[in-house]
Amino acid sequence: MERPRRLRQSPAMRRLVAETRLHPADLILPLFVREGTTEVIPLSSMPGVVQHSLDSLKGAVAEAAELGLGGVMLFGVPEHKDAVGSGATDPDGILNVATRVAVAEAGDALVVQTDLCLDEFTDHGHCGVLDSRGRVDNDASLERYREMALAQAASGSQLLGLSGMMDGQVAAVRDVLDSNDFDETPILGYSAKYASAFYGPFREAVQSSLVGDRRTYQQDPANRREGTRELLLDIEEGADILMVKPAMSYLDVLADAAALSPVPVWAYQVSGEYAMIEAAAANGWIDRSRAIHESVVSIRRAGADAVLTYFAAEIARSL
Ligand code: PBG
Q: The whole model's pTM is what?
């Protein structure tokens, strides 16, 4: 008789044959930085996650470095928004200032990454700019992304996270970086990013002004093959790392990506995934720390080389 249970008989044996492990270096912590605040502002839909001030950001980055995390991903929450998202390209805009602060604090300890997308900065809340009929204008948005890429690279961002889902965004940003002496700045392509209900709490986190949805540019959750198409395009356009997002409802897409990609593949355990675990745990319905660990292990097992997760610091502490 085959007896697979032989390898499950003790904690030491199980640890020895574990195929997937979590390590702090494979975890990236997303951080929100709010303009014009000196307070740390808690987010009701994401218990334990806050909007940082520039000052508290320093402490968060220092802690992430101390814990040995692979990196932090910065999101800016500006005081003022407009139709073209001017704050995103202003060198004194919150995300660019926060990047300089984080890079100074982190030294060589971790990789400071920035979200390259207009939605936090536009008054209509879309990831791009709108045309005269109110539709998201792909190619005009690319022009803004090129400007945003230069502003972020000049601020010292060590990895640009292109999350806007415009066609051609990786090629456009690669081109502008290369022709401005930023050929060493790498690009993380949010290649397969789906129009997901699980971004709900994030919208509170960045005080999104979005009315409607992003379904004309983010992918339909029904589509797996289309995920492959997007991933291949980003590889061709020169992405250094690919991302699948959200993570837990898209493990098939992630496994496809891991199988086909010659570059690293990451996954983003998004705000709604975090909130679901926290809410169920708060009700006593699941074992919180086991659920956190299992969720991130499953994302790694499906093929993610690294994971963006709001649990990053906590997991690192527990290892
Ligand atoms: C776009 C962006 C979003 C998230 C990360 N980058 C929001 C969106 O696409 O609607 C969501 C992350 C999360 O839910 O944790 N700037």
A: 0.97
